[in-house]
């Protein structure tokens, strides 16, 4: 039997070229017709009962939709696959990660990771995917990579309010890395915008008992609005954190102007650090920040984080 070609084409197009045997049957086709498409090399079998209605290299979206069709009713992209679908992750992840309701037990397939869940989160999108809050928590629970979780938390909060993320986190039972994610959410809520800023707050300031700076401070200097990554209010010191993405070649012309304007208008001393300073040698960075603060009147002393810490020398 031949299916209604225009309807079949519309369904496949909506699914990035993927289509299932059940869908073909509902449109009037049968297994003989499917075998004809495969024999003529017009279609390709990608999973049991799931096909691509074209030949050639499939897109990530086609592969993802085919995975959902195989996983069946109620399935959704999750973890890094959901993160990519939501725009939280830039690089298309492999394998395709799919979550299904717990009562379903699809057999494992090459190129897929299938997770059974007792409670399926809310899912959205043309390619159904878990919402941003659950996606963030899923990745944090399986990763534990601080830098990755900070980046993802920033992206997730573009889609969902932090209060909802906290509620979802509270509702989850037996969650790995719960304390890490709770800490990162608090840091992001306080204004941290990158893994470098998080490491500065955690490894330089907090571990060495330095005064806590104010993050992302906007000021009007020399007629223009500028923003300081980290400002020690009333202490005459500010810190700029230059990541490789924003400053691949070092300080830009606008960075130099900003530092000069801050010095002229406020007499603030600007310290500028990169990844190698904060992540590679946080103790030496803390010692230099402490020296700058002391030169501007701070009477405190940093605390060594260990027996080999540079601030104790």
From TrEMBL:
Domain of life of the source:
Bacteria
Protein name (database record):
Type IV toxin-antitoxin system AbiEi family antitoxin domain-containing protein
Q: Which organism is it from?
A: Georgenia faecalis
Q: What is the lineage of its organism?
A: Bacteria, Bacillati, Actinomycetota, Actinomycetes, Micrococcales
């Amino acid at each position: 039997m031949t299916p209604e070609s225009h309807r079949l084409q519309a369904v496949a197009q909506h699914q990035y070229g993927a289509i299932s045997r059940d869908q073909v049957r509902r449109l009037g086709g049968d297994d003989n017709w499917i075998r004809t498409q495969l024999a003529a090399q017009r279609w390709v079998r990608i999973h049991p009962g799931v096909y691509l209605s074209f030949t050639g290299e499939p897109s990530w979206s086609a592969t993802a939709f085919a995975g959902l069709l195989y996983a069946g009713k109620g399935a959704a992209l999750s973890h890094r696959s959901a993160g990519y679908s939501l725009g939280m992750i830039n690089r298309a992840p492999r394998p395709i990660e799919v979550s299904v309701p717990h009562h379903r037990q699809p057999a494992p397939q090459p190129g897929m990771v299938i997770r059974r869940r007792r409670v399926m989160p809310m899912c959205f999108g043309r390619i159904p995917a878990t919402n941003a809050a659950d996606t963030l928590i899923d990745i944090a629970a399986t990763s534990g990579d601080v830098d990755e979780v900070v980046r993802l938390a920033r992206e997730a909060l573009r889609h969902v309010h932090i209060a909802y993320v906290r509620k979802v986190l509270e509702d989850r039972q037996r969650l790995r890395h719960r304390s890490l994610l709770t800490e990162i959410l608090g840091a992001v809520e306080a204004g941290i915008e990158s893994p470098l800023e998080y490491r500065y707050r955690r490894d330089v300031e907090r571990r060495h008992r330095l005064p806590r700076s104010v993050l992302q401070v906007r000021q009007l200097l020399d007629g223009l609005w500028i923003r300081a990554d980290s400002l020690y209010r009333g202490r005459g010191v500010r810190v700029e954190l230059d990541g490789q993405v924003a400053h691949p070649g070092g300080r830009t012309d606008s960075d130099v102007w900003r530092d000069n304007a801050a010095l002229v208008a406020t007499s603030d001393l600007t310290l500028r650090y990169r990844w190698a300073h904060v992540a590679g040698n946080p103790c030496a960075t803390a010692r230099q920040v402490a020296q700058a603060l002391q030169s501007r009147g701070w009477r405190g002393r940093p605390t060594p984080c260990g027996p080999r810490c540079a601030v104790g020398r």
